[in-house]
Amino acid sequence: MEINYDKTLLVVIDMQTVTMKLAKKFAVHDAQAVLANNNRLIEASNGQMSVALLHGLPKFVPGSLAKRLTELATDLQLRQADNVASFTKHQPSAYTSAEFRAYLQVHEIETIILTGISTDDGVLKTAREMQSAGYHIITVTDATTTTNLKKYQTALTELMQIGKVTTTSELIKALVVAK
């Protein structure tokens, strides 16, 4: 797997603290393992590959509640790196965010590496829309999860048709080679 740092974006979907607490039991990968794999991938970007953290927020949520709902679970120090940007989305797909789409164009992104929660909703819907828009999609299977094993397996089958699938360790190896 070849990775071009300049044209690739790691997209982390819905890794919010509240999401991690609400979904106490994931069917496939434990929430803490998924969080750890996402942190490993952000760290492996090594400031060379851009990272987008997308958090979902229903429309019309009061400010104080919105702040609590959008608090990210990923490592604070990693989130503060220069190559990391955060975006709000109001639908499951990250591609529905106009701000996010503008970022993709400005940075001339061609390949999307998808991670996050949940595999069968935000991750899959983002993959579908972005593939339809012409992006190359790579999904990191052990950096995603959902609450239902059957839905996870169905989503993975579709994600394999949309693009490539890999694991955190395999992707990190490819990132090291790409440097």
UniProtKB/TrEMBL annotation:
The keyword 4Fe-4S does not apply. Gene3D superfamilies: Isochorismatase-like (3.40.50.850). The keyword Phosphoprotein does not apply. It comes from the Bacteria. Residues 8-169 form the Isochorismatase-like domain. Keywords: Hydrolase. One of its GO terms (molecular function) is hydrolase activity. Belongs to the isochorismatase family. This is Isochorismatase family protein.
